[in-house]
Amino acid sequence: MYKVAHRRRCTGRAYLFNALIGKVFLSNPADILQVVFDTPLRQSFDYLAPAGRPPPRPGERVRVPFGRQTAIGLVIAHATSSALPRARLKPALEAIDTTPIWDKTTFGLLHWAADYYHHPLGDVLFGAMPKLLRQGKAAVSEEAVWRLSQAGRAALAGGARIGPRQRALLELAGDEGASAAAISAAGHTPALRALAARGWLESFSRPEAPPPAGEGRAGPVPTADQSAAIGRVGASHGEFAAFLLHGVTGSGKTEVYLRIIERVIEAGRGALVLVPEIALTPQLVARFRTRLAAPVVALHSSLADGARLEAWRAAASARAPVVIGTRSAVFTPMPALGLVVVDEEHDASYKQQEGFRYSGRDLAVARAQRAGCPAVLGSATPSLESLANAAAGRYAKLSLPERTGRAGKPRVTVVDLRVNPARDGLSPPALAAIERHLGDRGQVLVFLNRRGYAPTMFCTGCGWIAPCKSCDARLTVHLSRATLACHHCGAEERMPFACPQCGNELAPVGEGTERVETTLTQLFPAAPMVRIDRDVIRRRGDLEAALAAVGDGRARILLGTQMLTKGHDFPDVTLVVVLAADQGLFGADFRASERLAQQIVQVAGRAGRGARAGEVLIQTAYPEHPLLRRLITEGYEGFAVLALEERRAAGWPPYSHLALLRADSPSRAQVFDFLRAAEAAAPAGGGPRPRILGPAAAAMARRAGRHRAQLLVESRSRGALQAFLGEWVAAIAAVRAPRSLRWSLDVDPAEVD
Ligand code: ADP
Ligand code: ZN
Ligand code: ZN
Asked: How many CB atoms lie within 10 A of CB 311?
């Protein structure tokens, strides 16, 4: 193993080394490869290029000796010298690729992202590859093709005696060639053997055929608002510009994307469309394939490894000009990128919450900037960051204020739970509305963002509440499984018969979707119901089946968690009931109220998308809460103005920039010792130094048996924060920490509690 310190840190030393050795090294060829591996190490390793061929370029994979084994590495740069003497460098064993696996722009984006998020480059690069590429499979797919050789052509023209089968194959192959697959499908394999043996057919390989094209069916005539949005994106003439497409649910945003993508394809370029994980349903992909004539590939987490590699190859070779994918698809190579779309740009699933903690949304904009093409961020409930970017003129704002259907905006009513107490989560006005809508043959959607039967198990004698043994959290009652489960660490235990402390009777307190389902079934026995949450929807097919029952009208009541709020269309839903709108109003996190408002607006937007007008009921015990009032009286935009004022006053993003150093360990003292040492190691730096707050315990101070705490770093200047973090990360990595302690740095964290 030939270790050299991480490039950023060793520049000084390497420079000195060069200066000492002088001309000898400077005149050396740049045949030293700097290689990174599929590990979270913050360093690269030096190898000599394999002999007898041009050295593998940055972005190409090599197989190299690593310790006592061999490993697949990725070349990130060439160098003329190493911190190690040349004689001690080992040559790479094999070059795997003949061209870089990413186009220049995407490779550049990955480097930039590793720097920006201060994450090890090897982990970033290998994490962005399909698994089969990490294992060394070919990055370009070629198929074997047979075509006429000179002898074969002469034989055909010269009237040689050729049997009808062989003649048919020679004609099929022709000068263009026929793929081995096509030849075998036509039953010509025996003839192929004979003709290849005679030398009348010769083989070569060519890039595999593109995935099947879409149907290219005409879409609806755009409305005036849609035309305006399409026109403004078109007016950027393929140059970089960022657009925020704020359109209420059902206003035709997807139709706008499709129209813009059509133009991009006509111009010979490609489009990358990012969607939230749960919104990437076969229906959405089918809609793209129906409307677009070009091949469309989908990239998401439940693809089989082979299919994922195929989709990647099709994108990388531009055989598929349209890629729809979740967060990580932002790293798909697309050499002729002409548009980036981020649908539901506010969605929390764009932020990766472990390992390389990047924002797919933010990187999408960075990618468009590097590729020199427009980025369109769409949402019915844009993030406050994006609204602030639009207000500052960094994003051009496009609006679709009207729904395309006839229904118009739903009527929103607040139910004050203090005046109308709920039983099992449902207030009398909500029950009356459900009965009325079911009677009118409408569909009803009930939203409660809490799964299980009840969030707590409570002792009626002594007040004991069932706790998780490994977390600072309460156990959730799951009655149907007769268990108590922790939603934070996954621990489950059998339901106790009596209080372990005093032997008295236990009672579930509060409600989750399972309990509300029981209640609704009792009250409306004639209305078939579908429940959608993570306890009942475990596989992709489950969601499809549930949505199908809603779509064809079999289900009359639709009950679920936030799984319901993402992208699905329920045209016959006429009533939406939000059961506990308070969750989030008093959340510890500065984004809690934003998330709550987005959830309420998104779920309300499911109502009345068809011809019938919708009605929305919001149950709350805090109807006077200023943010909730603003949301209900003035809608999301009014809410956003107030919420942004609060952010500004409190100095939260987007009016400041944050990073979070998190640490966890089985020992509380270890966590705090480490964080204090990390704080002490913070560079003084020039310029305004960011503020470091903490160490403080996380909102859930213990999870899965590990104590958790953090330092929050805050600065008004993104540049100052970045400069600080660059130095600090190296210092943190040098802090002595026990093996059981884990730490991570989260730049632009989605949550800070
Ligand atoms: P969003 O993405 O904003 O939720 P969609 O693009 O899915 O909206 O449009 C909602 C519905 O309206 C879809 O059924 C779509 O086919 C239809 N639609 C969109 N644009 C038009 C239009 N210009 N004329 C008629 N129907 C439209
Ligand atoms: Zn008790
Ligand atoms: Zn737990």
From this structure: 24
pLDDT at 310 over 50: yes
CA–CA dist 67, 656 (Å, integer): 45
Distance CA(490)–CA(470), nearest Å, equals 10
Rounded distance between C-alpha atoms, residue 662 and residue 751, angstroms: 12
> Is 378 near ligand 1, meaning CB less than 6 Å away?
no
Residue whose CA is at the smallest distance from ligand 1 atom 23: 222
Q: What is the Cα–Cα distance from 245 to 229, expressed in whole angstroms?
A: 8
The verdict on the CB of residue 389 being under 6 Å from ligand 1 is no
C-alpha 8 chain-centroid distance? 29
- Report pLDDT for 20: 43
Give the domain extent around 292. 224-400
Asked which of 400, 419, 438 is the last residue of a domain, the reply is 400
- Cβ of 28 closer than 6 Å to ligand 1, yes or no, is no
Q: What is the pLDDT of residues 338-375, one digit of tens each?
A: 999 999 999 999 999 999 999 999 999 999 999 999 99
Distance CA 745, CA 357 (A): 8
Considering the domain architecture, whether residues 28 and 62 belong to the same structural domain is answered as yes
Residues 256 and 394 in one domain: yes
Q: What's the pLDDT at 205?
A: 75
Q: What pLDDT does 215 receive?
A: 84
396 and 269 in a single domain? The answer is yes
- Is 252's C-beta closer than 6 angstroms to any atom of ligand 1? yes
- Whether 2 shows a pLDDT value over 80: the answer reads no
pLDDT tens-digit profile of 159-197?
778 888 888 898 888 888 888 778 887 888 888 888 888
* Distance in Å, CA 496 to ligand 1 centroid: 51
Evaluate: CB of 381 within 6 angstroms of ligand 1: no
| Cα of 510 from ligand 2 centre, angstroms | 18
Q: Ligand 1 pocket, 404 CB below 6 A?
A: yes
Task: Give the global pTM.
Answer: 0.87
Query: Do 415 and 532 fall into the same domain?
Result: yes
- State the closest ligand 1 atom to the C-alpha of 255, by its place in the atom list counted from 1: 6
Separation of alpha carbons 136 and 132, rounded Å: 6
Q: How many structural domains comprise the chain? A: 5
Say which residue, 262 or 3, is predicted with more confidence.
262
> Are 738 and 693 in a shared domain?
yes
Residues 68 and 40 in one domain: yes
